[in-house]
Design goal:
The structure is a homodimer.
Chain A (H helix, E strand, L loop, with lengths): L17 H13 L3 H9 L5 E2 H8 L3 H13 L3 E6 L2 E6 L3 H18 L6 H11 L1
Helix pairs in contact in A: 5-6
Chain A binds a DNA duplex through α4.
Chain lengths: ~130, ~130
DNA sequence: GATAAACATTACTCTGTGGTAATATAGTTA
DNA sequence: TAACTATATTACCACAGAGTAATGTTTATC
C-alpha cells in the first residue's frame, strides 16, 4: 500500500492522500446515522444479540442486520455466533471516547448560541464514563 | 429545549433522545466527505479565501461554496469578509484533535489486519500536532 | 427429515446529497 | 455608470444509501 506521503510538504495536512482522507471519511460516515449511533449506544453496557438490539432500538430486522454488517466492517462492533443467535459487542471502547468529545464540543457550540443544555452536558459525560 | 433526558435509566446511553443522537450524527456527517476533509486540511495552517481553497483542493467553485456553507453552519469553520474576498478559518481546532484520534484508531485497526502503515501513523501525529 | 427461530441477503423504492453549469449578487476599479 | 472579480445561489443530474418486504440460510428442536 503506497499512500504517497511526502514529508517535505509545507503543510502537514496537505500530505494526506485522497486514499487516506477516504479512510477517515468512511469512518465518520459510519457514525453519521442516528440508527447506527442507537445501535452503538445499546451496546455500551454489554453485548446483545440481534433480537435484543431490535427491541432496544425499535428498528426493523433487515435494517439492523445491514447496519450491524457496516459497523462490523468498520471495526466498531464485533460479532460472535452463539447457537442460533449472533451476539454483537463494542470492538473498541474508543468509540465512546470519541462520541463524548463530540458531545462536549456540541455543548460548547450550542452554549455559544444561548441554548439551555445542561442535559446535553450530562450526556457528554455519560459517553466518557 | 427539552431533550427528555432521564437520569433513572439503567443505561447511560439509552438516555440519549433521537434529537441528541441526530445532533451527533449530523456533526459526523459533515466530516464524512473527502472533499470537506480536504477543505479542513487546507485550513490547518491559517485562513484562506475561497479562491485559495479552490486551488488547494482542486474542487469546483460552486462545490467549494456549498461545502463551506455546510462547514460554517456546523461551526467547524468561520467566515470573514475582506473586500471582495471571503476568508475562512478553522473555528475550533478541536476538529484536528478529533481527526488525529480517528487516524490513530485506524492505524491500530489496520495494523491488526497486517497492513503496512508507517505513513498513516505519521498522519495521525500530524493531525494532533 | 420437518418445523421453527434467528439472522442474513436480495430487490426494490425513495430520499438526500455531491458535483456542476448557469445565473445572481456584491464589492472594486476605471 | 460600466466592466470586472470574487463568491453565493439555483437548477439540474446522477449516485449512494436508508428502510423494508420477501426470501434465503443456518441452527436447534421435535
Amino acid at each position: 500500500m503506497n499512500l504517497n506521503i511526502s514529508t517535505t510538504n509545507e503543510s502537514g495536512m496537505s500530505e494526506l492522500t485522497p486514499a487516506t482522507l477516504k479512510l477517515m471519511a468512511d469512518f465518520f460516515k459510519v457514525l453519521s446515522e442516528t440508527s447506527r449511533l442507537q445501535i452503538i449506544c445499546s451496546l455500551k453496557y454489554g453485548s446483545k444479540n440481534v433480537t435484543e438490539i431490535i427491541e432496544a432500538t425499535g428498528l426493523g430486522q433487515a435494517n439492523v442486520s445491514k447496519h450491524l454488517k457496516l459497523l462490523t466492517q468498520a471495526g466498531i462492533v464485533a460479532r460472535e455466533q452463539q447457537g442460533v443467535s449472533a451476539y454483537y459487542k463494542i470492538a473498541n471502547p474508543f468509540i465512546f471516547e470519541l462520541c463524548g468529545l463530540v458531545c462536549n464540543s456540541l455543548v460548547v457550540q450550542l452554549e455559544q448560541q444561548n441554548k439551555p443544555l445542561q442535559e446535553l452536558t450530562a450526556i457528554g459525560n455519560s459517553f466518557a464514563g
